[in-house]
Amino acid sequence: MPNIKSAKKRMRSNAKKADVNTLVYSSMKTAIKKVEKDVKNKDKEAVSNSLNIAVQRIDKAAASGLVHKNKAARLKSRLTKMKNNME
């Protein structure tokens, strides 16, 4: 346990940031899984909606540095390819 005031504050802020990062990352992964599920069910309208949401969540994670920009681009590319090859 830290004794210094700034170290105590750093622990509190790190805990808050960890909670936010976990929320952003898990919502991104959930959105990706939803797109994959909709592609599997061959529901074009649902895929379009869920793909838009997934892209937004991926961009948010990349902007905050949670995932690398190249990984974000790769994820978006794979999801878009899934949608386009769905026919």
What does this protein structure show overall?
The protein has one domain: Methane Monooxygenase Hydroxylase, Chain G, domain 1 (Up-down Bundle). The model has no long low-confidence stretch (mean pLDDT 95). The termini are far apart. Helix 1 (5-40) runs antiparallel to helix 2 (44-63). The chain is an all-alpha fold. The longest helix is centred in the N-terminal third of the chain and has 36 residues, at 5-40. The protein is elongated and about 60 Å long. Helix content is 83%, strand content 0%. It contains 3 helices and no strands.
Produce the secondary structure layout.
Blueprint: H1 5-40, H2 44-63, H3 69-84
Helix pairs in contact: 1-2, 1-3, 2-3
Radius of gyration: 17 Å
CATH domain class name: Mainly Alpha
- CATH architectural name: Up-down Bundle
Q: What is the CA–CA distance across the termini? A: 58 Å
Number of helices: 3
The general outline is elongated
- The name of the CATH topology is Methane Monooxygenase Hydroxylase, Chain G, domain 1
Provide the β-strand percentage band: under 5%
| Helix-residue proportion | over 70%
Extract low-pLDDT stretches. none
Largest sheet, in brief, is:
none
Structure classification: mainly alpha
Number of domains: 1
What is the string of SSEs from the N terminus onward? Answer: HHH
Any descriptors?
about 90 residues, mainly alpha, Methane Monooxygenase Hydroxylase, Chain G, domain 1, elongated
Overview in brief:
The protein is an all-alpha fold and about 90 residues long. It is built from 3 helices and no strands.
